[in-house]
Design brief:
Blueprint (H helix, E strand, L loop, with lengths): L1 E3 L1 E6 L4 E9 L6 E8 L6 E9 L13 E5 L5 E2 L21 E7 L6 H9 L3 H9 L26 E2 L6
Parallel strand pairs: 5-8
Antiparallel strand pairs: 1-8, 2-3, 3-6, 3-7, 4-5, 8-9
């Protein structure tokens, strides 16, 4: 499973979000999100997106091409109708003062047990985002990181969407 940076915003009136994923500027590459999950906990809002590509689950992290913020799916993410089975609260209480943590996981063979482990571990979404953004963390076996390290986004805002966010 590979992890990519995102940036973007959400709209509290329509309860939608736009997440732009940093991908290689490759005209032959076609990606799409196949599933979104609400992974919000009692203190943080989060969305987990599973992305696939047309190149056989190719690892895009080692590209030599320019990496640009790409709106993978043309329609905004409907925050009301995504699966909330791994969340402890719904996204309909999101306000303009909140942040929405967005995780782009790239793996066409994604195993939902990772989300169950994430929910049971009670790790904060901020801690998870920090761990994923600041290392070459490879999720083989879907290990939940537990070490909090300083947050320095590689691209954009590192996966934190806000009401007035941009890339």
């Amino acid at each position: 499973m590979k992890v990519y940076q995102t940036c973007g915003s959400f709209d509290v009136a329509s309860l939608t979000a736009t997440a732009n994923t940093y991908l290689p500027n490759d005209k032959t590459l076609s990606c799409k999100y196949i599933k979104y999950y609400n992974i919000s906990n009692s203190t943080e809002f989060g969305v987990f997106g599973v992305m696939t590509d047309n190149q056989g689950n190719k690892d895009l992290r080692s590209t030599t091409l320019e990496v640009i913020a790409t709106q993978v799916n043309p329609q905004p993410i409907d925050l009301i109708n995504i699966s909330s089975v791994y969340a402890t609260r719904k996204l309909d209480t999101l306000t303009i003062k909140n942040s929405l943590y967005f995780f782009c996981f790239h793996d066409d063979a994604f195993d939902e047990s990772y989300l169950l482990n994430l929910q049971q571990s009670k790790i904060s979404l901020k801690a998870l985002l920090v761990a994923l953004n600041n290392s070459d963390f490879e999720q083989e076996g879907y290990v939940i990181p537990t070490k909090l390290i300083p947050f320095v986004p590689k691209k954009g805002n590192g996966g934190i969407l806000t009401a007035n966010g941009s890339c």
